[in-house]
């Protein structure tokens, strides 16, 4: 498969869809005994190794390295600074804004999360770009695995438009941030308590991604341990676009599916 950014087939890299700093930052934290406090679980995929996250050949070595340098490294300094105290991620760290989401679920009426938003526009822009990069790579990882819905979407005019607009948005040669990009999503801090709700374990962190389609919505959701990225694939101004519905699908329907998948992993 050629590089999803530039199209070359030479010098392909094995790219982490979920940035390596997320896994290393979480699983590298030691408890009082000196052992790693957290282990991670890839939900619903018994075929994948449990010591690393999937690394499909999505990008050439050059662009994999440049995205790491110019998008992932700034995001790492915001999401996981060197002085991170993980128990405090259950609160609302500086730079994040608390949101209580209304959830239409018999078992869960609301969920408290936080969105990153500060007066530092460069930091805001770095997080927004990181969220798009992560979800875009997840989309193409599912395409590589021949997910029928994803393959059909990327071959459609709508999918081709998403691909072109996203490549332009992620253009590493542009010095200014493109605020007119029509597919902005959100990254939510859900914290260790939410992770343990899924894994039923205080020392196990879940990772997963999915293509969401239904209720007139299309999008990508990525679970990165203590964070959730939701990326709409309908542009701003589309008559069917309803981010609140997509968010509901991610936090209720998909999370219910994750709980079942996690239980099946344990069988």
Major sheet size, sense and barrel closure? 7 strands, mixed
* Cα separation of the termini: 34 Å
Give the uncertain stretches in residue-range form: none
Number of helices: 7
Strand content: 15-25%
Average pLDDT, rounded to a whole number, is 85
Could you estimate the helical fraction of the residues in percent? Answer: 25-40%
Q: Using DSSP, what is the number of strands?
A: 7
What's the overall geometry? Answer: globular
What does the radius of gyration come to?
Answer: 18 Å
Order of secondary-structure elements: HEHEEHHHEHEEEH
Structural class: alpha+beta
**Order of strands across the biggest sheet?**
1-5-6-7-4-3-2
Question: What's a quick, concise take on this entry?
Answer:
By secondary structure, the protein is an alpha+beta fold. The protein has helices spanning 20-27, 61-79, 121-144, 148-155, 157-169, 191-199, 243-265; strands at 39-42, 96-102, 110-116, 186-189, 204-214, 217-224, 227-232.
Describe, in plain words, how this protein is organized in 3D.
Strands 1-5-6-7-4-3-2 form a 7-stranded mixed β-sheet, sandwiched between helices. A hairpin with a 2-residue loop joins strand 6 and strand 7. The protein is of the alpha+beta class and 267 residues long. Helices cover 39% and strands 18% of the residues. The model has no long low-confidence stretch (mean pLDDT 85). The chain starts with 19 loop residues before the first helix and ends with a helix. Helix 2 packs across helix 3, helix 3 packs across helix 4 and helix 4 crosses helix 5. The protein is globular. It has helices spanning 20-27, 61-79, 121-144, 148-155, 157-169, 191-199, 243-265; strands at residues 39-42, 96-102, 110-116, 186-189, 204-214, 217-224, 227-232.
């Amino acid at each position: 498969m050629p590089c999803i950014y530039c199209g070359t087939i030479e010098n392909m890299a094995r790219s982490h869809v979920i940035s390596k700093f997320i896994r290393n930052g979480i699983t590298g934290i030691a408890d009082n005994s000196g052992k790693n406090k957290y282990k991670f679980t890839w939900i619903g995929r018994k075929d994948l190794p449990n010591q690393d996250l999937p690394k499909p050949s999505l990008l050439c070595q050059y662009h994999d390295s440049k995205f790491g340098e110019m998008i992932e490294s700034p995001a790492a300094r915001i999401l996981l600074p060197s002085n991170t105290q993980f128990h405090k991620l259950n609160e609302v760290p500086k730079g994040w804004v608390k949101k209580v989401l209304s959830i239409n679920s018999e078992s869960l009426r609301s969920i408290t999360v936080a969105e990153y938003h500060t007066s530092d526009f460069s930091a805001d822009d770095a997080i927004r770009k990181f969220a798009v990069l992560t979800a875009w790579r997840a989309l193409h990882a599912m395409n590589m695995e021949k997910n029928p819905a994803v393959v059909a979407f990327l071959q459609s005019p709508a999918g081709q438009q998403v691909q072109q607009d996203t490549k332009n948005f992620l253009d590493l040669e542009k010095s200014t941030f493109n605020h007119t990009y029509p597919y902005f999503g959100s990254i939510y801090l859900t914290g260790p308590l939410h992770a343990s709700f899924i894994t039923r374990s205080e020392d196990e962190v879940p990772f997963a991604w999915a293509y969401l389609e239904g209720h007139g919505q299309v999008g990508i959701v990525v679970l990165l341990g203590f964070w959730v990225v939701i990326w709409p694939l309908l542009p701003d101004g589309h008559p069917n676009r309803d981010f609140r519905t997509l968010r509901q699908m991610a936090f209720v329907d998909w999370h219910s599916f994750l709980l079942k998948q996690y239980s099946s992993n344990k069988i």
